[in-house]
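lol ok so funny story. i was supposed to be doing the assay writeup but got distracted and ended up predicting the structure for this chain instead. priorities right. anyway since i did it might as well share w the group, maybe its usefull for someone
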Amino acid sequence: MPNPLGPHGRCDGAGGARPPRPVVHHSHKKDEILEALWTMREDGSESLGDLAALVATTRLEEIIGEMVAAGTVVRDKDNLSLTASGETRAREIIRRHRLAERLFHDVFGLSEAQWEASACSFEHILDVTVVEAVCTFLGHPSVCPHEKPIPPGRCCRDARRPTEPLVIPLTSLKVGGDAKIIYIAPRTKSRLSRLSSFGVIPGSNIHLLQRHPSYVIRIDQTNVALEGDVARDIFVRPDNSHTH
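and the output, tada:
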């Protein structure tokens, strides 16, 4: 099966098996068209031919007709553009998709094929509350992994100043900082077992003593030295309530 995923923060095809209910699939296809029109506009195109190359369906003309009637797109011969309502819907889809890409790429370290497929699914199911939480968690990123802009949300506009992600790699914690381990993404199971034996587990509170020549953290009354590649696999939430 050809890869339906595109490199510009969008889903360029059916994205998997057809759902059992055609109505749901049709709704998703309209979202896919709105998403494609947004990204085409970023590349300077409104061509129906370019849209047909991006959206895999034999019913493109029929669906576009329905969207024109619904007032989400305007058609001028072989050119298509978003209406105000279509723009609003496309913006929401693009925002969810590109934030999902950042989440899977930055936090979970997935390959591009993996996080593109997941982002295509998440863009249809994340509600506003979850999207805002993900955006805040990531520190209100402005671009996706492809360097395409992420439309800002209310949480971004409400932020009075640039913010740091809520969860960061241990390597980004400042010396003297306190934090709680949120999760660990080790390269191997043996590494996870070794860390666990030292009490380096999710939920543990740590204090960073030094960064060079190795990272040294204090857990309870125990000091643990970690190599840089190990420290990068440990993600923590800094405690800014007090400093040493």
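Residues 1-8, 13-24 have pLDDT under 50 and may be disordered. The longest strand covers residues 178-184.
back to the writeup now i swear
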